[in-house]
């Protein structure tokens, strides 16, 4: 019982730190998945004006000086070391104009996409098929829906083979796609809310072959770009370098700067930097909690030193007997330091187990809103640190025991 009470401060301190670190790690991963996705590594490079997204619509036409992206420009983007893939697409937000029988969609997004668009962004076919090369070369009027638009437009019916009207043009539904990250995405802050909301409209999205875009909207329009970075860490560089290549094709003054006021330029959406800023803010707050948890480690270390001093007093005669038959100071010192280190290491192990348990309890009672990610290196460091605490705070009692005079020690009862 006395040994357990001695370890209690260490258990509480280590357990608190492990619980905090696990929560930080889980929250950071959840934030990354919410804003970026599960290692999809895609960066959107879009037209902007005055720092805001520029969308072509019926009231705001194509910007002056921004050309259609050529194959040469795409090749230049693919030459960027940080870019593993690229796809260009047209985009419009349409207020109305899509009908199936008596059902209609309002305020939805429509995209004109290339064949590699879905694979680049990590979309998979839920039912039906994706676009084929013939759909582009023959200018077929076919359309792919996302899950939301299919549900809103068909209300549970099978949409495959059905004909819908897009701005008075008949299009045949050939497939329904879904995002692999949709079921895992979560909104943890206002920034991730806007990011998620832009990609997931309430009424959904639909996709037509890029070659058929002029059939609906009468003429070719400047496109946006999505690049897939070679790694999560290279997302920022991939986006910035792609924007630089695209801006070099824009004609007119100040076309190379994204802060050029009224001119339209390309801007990369730096989600990685947003994630890092959010994570740094969360880490700064949680670091204060870790310092508070560290105080209990200090208290636990003092408790270990106190109990070891009591143990030296109780075992004075034993120490005197050992020294009388030839035990050296180093042997006595090592014995008590080992006892202290084993005691605190055991407390560290119990603390790690308790911290993991507390993390899962918090996760359960928070309704899974606080995720858990166990950090194995931090757990190992915590156990080693608890051993160091035992050695440091056990040094004074061990030194006192080693310096006892054997004659005086044997005389004590």
Describe the structure.
The chain is α+β, with helices and mostly antiparallel strands and 413 residues long. The chain has 2 domains: 2-29 and 277-411, no CATH class; 39-269, no CATH class. Helices cover 51% and strands 18% of the residues. The protein is built from 13 helices and 13 strands. The protein has helices spanning 2-35, 71-78, 117-121, 133-137, 147-154, 190-199, 213-217, 235-247, 271-314, 316-324, 329-365, 376-402, 406-411; strands at 42-49, 52-53, 83-94, 98-100, 103-105, 108-113, 123-128, 142-146, 163-166, 169-179, 205-209, 224-229, 264-268. Strands 1, 2, 3, 4, 5, 6, 7, 8, 9, 10, 11, 12 and 13 form a 13-stranded mixed beta sheet that branches. β1 and β2 (52-53) form a beta hairpin. α9 crosses α11, α9 (271-314) packs parallel to α12 and α11 runs antiparallel to α12. The protein is elongated, with a radius of gyration of 33 Å.
Strand content: 15-25%
Separate helix tally: 13
Instruction: Give Rg in angstroms.
Output: 33 Å
- How far is the first residue's CA from the last residue's CA? 24 Å
Going by helix content, strand content and strand pairing, the class is alpha+beta
Estimate nothing, just give the exact number of structural domains. 2
Compute the average pLDDT: 79
Task: Report on the biggest sheet.
Answer: 13 strands, mixed
Helix content percent band: 40-55%
CA-based shape = elongated
N-to-C order of helices and strands: HEEHEEEEHEHEHEEHEHEHEHHHHH
Number of strands: 13
Instruction: Report low-confidence residues grouped into runs of 5 or more.
Output: 183-201, 253-261
């Amino acid at each position: 019982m006395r040994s357990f009470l001695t370890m209690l401060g260490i258990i509480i301190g280590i357990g608190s730190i492990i619980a905090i670190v696990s929560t930080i790690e889980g929250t950071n991963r959840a934030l990354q998945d919410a804003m970026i996705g599960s290692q999809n590594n895609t960066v959107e490079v879009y037209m902007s004006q005055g720092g805001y997204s520029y969308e072509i619509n019926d009231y705001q036409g194509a910007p002056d000086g921004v050309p259609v992206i050529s194959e040469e420009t795409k090749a230049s983007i693919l030459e960027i070391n940080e870019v593993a893939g690229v796809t260009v697409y047209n985009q419009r937000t349409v207020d109305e104009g899509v009908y199936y029988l008596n059902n209609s969609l309002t305020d939805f997004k429509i995209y004109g996409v290339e064949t590699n668009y879905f694979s680049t962004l990590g979309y998979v076919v839920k039912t039906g098929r994706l676009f084929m090369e013939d759909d582009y070369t023959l200018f077929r009027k076919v359309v792919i829906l996302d899950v939301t638009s299919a549900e809103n437009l068909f209300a549970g019916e099978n949409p495959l083979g059905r004909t819908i009207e897009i701005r008075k043009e008949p299009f045949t539904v050939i497939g329904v796609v879904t995002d692999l990250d949709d079921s895992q995405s979560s909104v943890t802050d206002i920034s991730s809310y806007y990011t998620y909301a832009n990609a997931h409209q309430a009424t959904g999205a639909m996709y037509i072959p890029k070659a058929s875009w002029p059939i609906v909207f009468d003429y070719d329009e400047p496109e946006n770009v999505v690049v897939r970075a070679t790694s999560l860490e290279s997302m920022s560089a991939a986006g910035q370098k792609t924007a630089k290549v695209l801006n070099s094709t824009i004609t007119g003054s100040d076309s190379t700067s994204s802060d050029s006021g009224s001119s339209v330029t390309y801007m990369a959406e730096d989600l990685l930097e947003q994630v890092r800023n959010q994570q740094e803010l969360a880490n700064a707050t949680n670091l204060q909690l870790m310092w508070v948890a560290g105080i209990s480690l200090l208290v636990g270390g003092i408790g270990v030193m106190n109990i070891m001093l009591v143990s030296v007093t109780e075992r004075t005669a034993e120490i005197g007997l050992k020294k009388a038959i030839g035990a050296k100071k180093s042997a006595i010192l090592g014995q008590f330091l080992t006892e202290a280190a084993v005691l605190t290491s055991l407390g560290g192990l119990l603390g790690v187990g308790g911290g993991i348990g507390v993390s899962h309890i918090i996760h359960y009672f928070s309704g899974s809103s606080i995720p858990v990610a166990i950090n194995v290196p931090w757990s190992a460091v915590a156990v080693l640190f608890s051993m160091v605490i035992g050695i440091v705070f056990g040094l004074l009692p061990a030194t006192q025991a080693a310096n006892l005079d054997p004659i005086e020690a044997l005389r004590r009862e």
